[in-house]
Amino acid sequence: MVFSTQRVQPARRALTLGLFAAALGLSGLAQAQTPIRLLVGFPAGAGSDAIARALGEKLKDELGAPVVVENRAGAGGQIAAQALKSAPADGHTLFLTHDHSISILPQVVKNPGFNPSADFVPVAGFATFANVLAVSGGTPAKTMDEYVKWVRTQKDGKETIGVPAPGSIPEFLVKLISDKYKLDLQAAPYRGSAPLTADMLGNQITAGIASVPDFIENHKAGKVRIVAVIGAKRQPLLPQVPTFTELGFANLDDYPYYGIFAPVGTPQPVIDRFGTALQKVLAMPDVKQKLTAMGLNVAYEPQGQFAGRVRTYTQTWERIIKASGFKPQ
After folding, report:
1. Which of 153, 200, 147 is nearest to 178 (CA)?
2. Number of Cβ atoms within 10 Å of the Cβ of 135
3. Residue 259: which region, alpha, beta or left (left: phi > 0; alpha: psi -120 to 50)?
4. Cβ neighbours of residue 275 under 8 Å, at least 6 residues apart?
5. What is d(CA 52, CA 305) in angstroms, rounded to the nearest whole number?
6. Of 28, 27, 23, 26, which is closest to residue 38 (Cα–Cα)?
7. pLDDT tens, position by position, 46-64
8. Is a pLDDT exceeding 50 seen at residue 27?
9. Cα(33)–Cα(24) distance, rounded to whole angstroms?
10. Is the pTM of this model over 0.90?
């Protein structure tokens, strides 16, 4: 995936920079009050929403303009991505998202309505995280081995694992787990992690795969139990939980990412300004502590570095998805 580095022509830039600068609080007070929309592709209460609100509260002070979190939930972030594509490149609309909307959706949906490399430009990355397998109170399992043994005791050896969206990395993880342990596991797609977690808490589904931020509070409270985590090493918040790599799964070392994207054509000074503000916010102890407590590995990545991460991650999962035999739907 190669993102566009398109820049407006000098004459056009000179004509429009005043508006772009105003959008990010670089001119008068009246202009600076124009809100910046921060699109989120998942509903209120989900991990992405909580992260966006934690950052938005601080970014407004750095940018000198209100930052409004706008939930465009549905289709695993597809609706929000389409909204970003149709938004003017004037610095007023940005997209806070994780890997699924950018790296995965275009590979699993025939006509997603957007092309990340042609329609979007990375602004900056701010965190990585881990997907995990968690079991609910409907199973006595406390480890992956115990979960596998429990599934084999069920009628016909079949079981369902909830995932936040169809065609998502959690759905592919269900298949990888099923293949490795020779189980009959089926993915049950939800419209986001919030309803998935609610059903797990109600024991309407016995297991789910989502991100650490989605499960960590209920794991700490003993309401769900995380039994495996993606990545090259164990998570600081989950030191007793083994990685999928430790459990014998290959090619699951790359961490999913969180970052900010803008419509293609957004002038570089605007992107740089927002990136600088984000870097300052991430350095604030209270912000870092809050995001870390959610299960994020917080680290600012400037535009070029973040674009490289997105490209490499997309290529890794392109190979896995093709090997799985999955056909875009």
Report:
1. 147
2. 24
3. beta
4. 123, 124, 302, 303
5. 21
6. 23
7. 889 999 999 999 999 999 9
8. no
9. 9
10. no
Structure tokens at 186: 């089926």
DSSP H or E run through 269: helix 268-282
Return the amino acid letter for 120: F
Check residue 97 and report its DSSP letter. Answer: E
E strands, the chain, are 36-40, 67-71, 93-98, 120-128, 131-136, 158-163, 184-189, 207-211, 224-229, 257-263, 297-301
Tell me the pairing of strands 224-229 and 131-136: antiparallel
Other beta carbons within 10 angstroms of residue 10's beta carbon come to 8
Return the amino acid letter for 283.
A
Please give the distance of CA 249 from its chain centroid, rounded to a whole number. 22
Would you state the structure tokens that stand for residue 114, as one six-digit string? 């957007």
**Exposure class string for 291-303: b at 16+ Cβ within 10 A, else e:** beebbbbbebbbb
Q: Are 163 and 190 in contact (CB under 8 A)?
A: yes
